[in-house]
Amino acid sequence: MTLPAKRAKDRRIQRTQGLLREALLSLIHEKNYDSIVVNDILDRANVGRSTFYTHFRGKHELLLSGIHDHLRSVQPASLPASAKRYERLIWFSLPIFELVDRQRRTGGARIGTRDRAIIHEHLQAAVADLIAEDVRKDLQGRRSAAGRIPPDLLIQYVASTFILTLHWWMGSKSPLLPKDADDVFRGLVLPTLAATLE
Fold first, then answer.
1. How far apart are the C-alpha atoms of 163 and 171, rounded to whole Å?
2. Residue 130 CA to chain centroid, in angstroms?
3. Is residue 9 predicted with pLDDT exceeding 60?
4. Angle at alpha carbon of residue 25, lines to 133 and 108, rounded to 5°
5. Closest among 118, 129, 198 to 158, alpha carbons compared
6. Which segments of the chain belong to CATH 1.10.10.60?
7. Angle in degrees, CA 168, 97, 117, rounded to 5
8. I want to staple 83 with a disulfide (CB 3.0 to 4.6 A). Which of 46, 53, 73, 87 is the partner?
9. Out of 40-44, 91-95, 173-177, least confident range
10. pLDDT of res. 144
């Protein structure tokens, strides 16, 4: 009997969090991120203040939660068996380039430079969180020798290089397709990942 109630509660929580994420996303397309306050999100989502703070400490945490939620939704169940271990680590890149491309085509390009930088900062943190466990697991047990890249540095290198490539691609006038932008990113990080994780 408790299982269905728990499922219903989980659905209510997911629904509430989804409403809050959608409200923030729609507001970002209408006004500067810095000018959005929690009350704006509450009004748009039709959610009470105490409900909001039950789930999130503020709009930054809500934004990061939305990014994590999206990454979970696009994560493939499995990757090609032919993919090398270090290639599997960066599975997220093409889905994000494709998402950004869809948003640009449907008006997401209206997001200003400052707001884009804030979103990219949160995305970088989410990517770092996403790959941290796998990087540490892959490096565990390897002898630390001179010249070895520390796990935390490798994590930040991959995440920041991804954001650098994404920012360059979004800001350039180049008509690169998402797959081409992904190839640029992979060209930058795969040699380092291969040398470090193989």
1. 12
2. 8
3. no
4. 100
5. 129
6. 2-62
7. 45
8. 87
9. 173-177
10. 53
Candidates 3.30.70.120, 2.60.40.3950, 1.10.10.60, 1.25.40.890; CATH matching 2-62 = 1.10.10.60
Residue with tokens 């810095």: 34
Going by pLDDT thresholds of 50, 70 and 90, the confidence category of residue 1 is very low
b/e 76-95 (16+ beta carbons within 10 angstroms → b): eeeeeeeeeebbebbbbbbb
User: What DSSP state is assigned to residue 92?
Assistant: T
Q: Where are the beta strands (DSSP E) in the chain?
A: none
Contact 89, 134 (CB under 8 A): yes
List CB contacts of 20: < 8 A, sequence separation 6 or more. 41, 45, 47, 52, 55, 56, 62
